[in-house]
Sequence to fold (30 residues):
Amino acid sequence: MGSSTGNLPRYTKVSAAKPKLSPVDGLTTL
Fold:
């Protein structure tokens, strides 16, 4: 998960847009 650091900003946007999804789901969506 070395790219996790780069995905953090994207995950944050997804989380804000879809708070219903879990953090893992948000990353999976990307």
Observations:
- The chain has a mean pLDDT of 58.
